[in-house]
């Protein structure tokens, strides 16, 4: 019995010692590559999701939320949501700014509040653009039964909404939060759009799984992307110390009314001219002329058989 007690005691002591030792190592903030301001709250995944949810409710009243909104009480409910958005956006923008700013808390809060107001003020114009995205998706998909179905259930449109919110925050020079929103949408839909990418109205992402759009990509109006499309970079320019040079344009420029079919990869700072159509499963590294059509050449060894009914 005593041997069992001694062994249990030694195990407990070893466990407590391990906890203390690891906790001391991990609490050494000087070992971290990035250190947030001590004692200040960091951005919250849950609160950032709340920003997206509130924006969706304001952009599409009645489609998201508790369903209590009617024409008679719309102004009241929209006002409540707008106030909630300002509160949570100010809080989270301030938390994000602490990574890049050594200003006082008062200055941070004031700056965050101004950017939150500008986010709120951008929503009417954002709704106008998103309505054109809805129209493009409904008109471009014979399987879509209504515009409401697109808003409620289409992953491509859901990712587009998140991107337009994240892009606005990016344009307001808010760090961290735009990428958090983009990765939430990526996790939810399988569509990976960098928040810095510039995308015109009337975007349709059909099916969407596996679509990737890089940070410096520019997409024009009324563009249709199918699943598995990548608008990526070929390589990175490096400085004298062999570090990647940030901010250089390295992703494609896609003109208006372009269609890119599934599993096609478009790489580098090339231009896809307006009205071009690029077929599926292609590797494109050179610019495409306006109106040009690219398709896979049929291999010489393909045999086509026309099976006609036998008499």
Strand arrangement in the largest pleated sheet: 1-4-7-10-13
Query: Strand count, sense and closure of the main sheet?
Result: 5 strands, parallel
Strand content: 5-15%
Number of helices: 7
Calculate Rg over CA atoms.
25 Å
Helix content: 40-55%
Number of extended strands: 14
Spans with pLDDT under 50 lasting ≥5 residues? 307-311
- Mean pLDDT, to the nearest integer, reads 89
Tell me the overall shape: globular
Structural class: alpha/beta
Terminus-to-terminus distance? 93 Å
The helix/strand order is: HHHHHHHEEEEEEEEEEEEEE
Describe the structure.
With 311 residues, this protein is an alpha/beta fold. The chain contains seven helices and 14 strands. The strands form three sheets. A five-stranded parallel β-sheet has the order 1-4-7-10-13. A five-stranded parallel β-sheet has the order 3-6-9-12-14. The longest helix has 36 residues, at 105-140. Residues 307-311 have low confidence and may be disordered.
Describe the secondary structure blueprint for this structure.
Blueprint: H1 2-26, H2 45-59, H3 74-97, H4 105-140, H5 147-153, H6 155-171, H7 177-189, E1 192-193, E2 198-199, E3 204-206, E4 212-213, E5 218-219, E6 224-226, E7 230-232, E8 253-254, E9 259-260, E10 265-267, E11 271-272, E12 277-278, E13 283-284, E14 293-294
Parallel strand pairs: 1-4, 2-5, 3-6, 4-7, 5-8, 6-9, 7-10, 8-11, 9-12, 10-13, 12-14
Helix pairs in contact: 2-3, 2-7, 3-4, 4-6, 6-7
Summarize the structure.
The chain has seven helices and 14 strands. The chain has about 300 residues and is of the alpha/beta class.
